[in-house]
Design a protein that fits this description.
This protein has about 120 residues and is mostly helical. Helices cover about 80% and strands about 0% of the residues. The protein has three domains: about 1-40; about 40-90; about 90-125. Keywords: ATP synthesis, CF(0), Hydrogen ion transport, Ion transport, Membrane, Mitochondrion, Transport.
Length: about 120
Amino acid sequence: MAGLASKLAQMQAKACEATRFAAKHGCAYHRTLMEKNKKYVADPPTIEKCQELSTQLFYTRLASLPGRYESFWKEMDQVKNVWRNRKDLNVEHAGVAALFGVELYAWFCAGEIIGRGFTLTGYYV
């Protein structure tokens, strides 16, 4: 119990230090960040403009769906073609497919760990 209390005190001290740093340097950082990226700021920067841009983004993504759908089926046709000609596969192609499968599994595991709050067991201590 004492170990947990000392960890809590350390976390509080670090949080206070981070808050002081942000309070001291936050405005200057914000100013330089906005100056560097002013070409991305919509004029005038109002709530209405943000809502308009949000709507544009939504419908632009919606408009891209047919192209994505077509690309998906082209890739599926390539996979079907490779499966039909699997006798012609060489070690390199099999290795690339295996590495791809391992990478997918690793991303799945990482997503599970992140989803559980960066715990390996899923339980909070």
